[in-house]
Amino acid sequence: DAIAGRLAALYPETNAGDGALVTPLQGDLNDRNTKLALWTLLGAVGFVLLIACANLANLMLARASRRSKEVAIRASLGADRSRLVRQFLGESLVVALVGGTVGLAIAFGGLDLIVGVVDSAIDGTVQGLRSAHVSGAALAFTAGVCAIVWLLVGLAPALQGSRLDV
Predict the structure, then answer these.
(1) How many whole angstroms separate alpha carbon 52 and alpha carbon 69?
(2) Where along the chain do its domains lie?
């Protein structure tokens, strides 16, 4: 407030009635508008993830339909539907795990990049910025999202591809 008072005294035409207010960052994160913006961002990211899941499920459905002869041969050799479903779900699990691993690698690398760029841009004036890290909660959330993606992407192709219409 002292600096704002000095600026108002030096430049009365432009700074009259102006002041300074310092608030903690946590207060800004609890602001209603900030929460709304973060929820909107979460919704947009979720919608993009849903579109990606739909595209991947369609690709896996097309792949399963191309493998109908293989499925018919396996069924004629004695494979029951549950074994075929497990095979298709196993394949989609690999896709979900690879996607989650790539996402985590991007998160770790991106966080290091952002911290480095921001820290150099503001000359290290923000305390605790260098201690930013991907938390255990973020890892658990990623595991949960991978499980949901696995089921969203894998269940329809597994059920469709394992039909025993021989």
Answers:
(1) 28
(2) 52-161
